[in-house]
Specification:
The protein has 208 residues and is mostly helical. It has one domain: AhpD-like. The protein has eight helices and no strands.
Length: 208
């Protein structure tokens, strides 16, 4: 199965060639494995699934950069900072500064959009008047993510799955499919989101 195709050349990143952006403080490449190993026996399925969805064999349709970009965006969206830092460190060999920034941006912008558009989806307005009102929210990152547009769409879709916005899920899924992205690739991105979200919850519980 081919990886998700590129739609266009990436836009210039706000960093020079070889530049490093602020990284995951205190997290080395072994941190993610340590967190995975710390999952209790009742979450053994999650322990195994985490290893699977972060491997090339476990995420058909995605390349390494897409897989780790989705993993980082969803770990940030899952609001577990140690897990997010560990994912960033583990994926450092696959993600340059622009892709790390884009993953952070996807988590940030969709954290806003998912709340607003979930409201539009769920509100019981017989006249459907809310959809006719301008959002009046800046969303410039969606049109200029600094990386390949489809890579960013995958991250936005996965974050939307975590945040439970039906409108956003449908919109990003349609865009990906209309540009030739396979259902298998879309499913892989959502499977990463599902596992990362569940792992973050267990880690948060066991640390409390």
């Amino acid at each position: 199965m081919d990886a998700v195709p590129s739609s266009a050349a990436p836009a210039s990143a706000p960093f020079g060639p070889g530049a490093q952006i602020p990284g995951p403080e205190g997290a080395g490449p072994e941190a993610l494995e340590q967190l995975r190993s710390s999952l209790p026996d009742y979450a053994r399925d999650l322990r195994l699934n985490l290893g699977s969805v972060l491997s090339s064999a476990g995420t058909p349709g995605l390349n390494d950069r897409q897989r780790w970009g989705v993993a980082l965006a969803t770990a940030i969206a899952a609001r577990h900072a140690p897990l997010a830092r560990a994912v960033e460190a583990a994926g450092a060999q696959h993600l340059d500064a622009a892709h790390v920034t884009a993953a952070r941006t996807a988590a940030a912008i969709m954290g806003m959009n998912n709340v607003y558009y979930r409201f539009l989806h769920l509100v019981e307005d017989e006249e459907d008047g809310y959809r006719g009102l301008p959002a009046r929210l800046r969303m410039n990152a969606l049109s200029a993510p600094g990386i390949d547009a489809l890579d960013f769409e995958l991250a936005c879709l996965a974050v939307s799955a975590i945040n439970g916005c039906g409108l956003c899920i449908s919109s990003h899924e349609r865009k990906l499919r209309s540009h030739g992205v396979s259902r298998e690739a879309v499913q892989s991105a959502v499977r990463i989101a599902a596992v990362i979200h569940a792992v973050a919850g267990v880690l948060d519980y066991t640390a409390s």
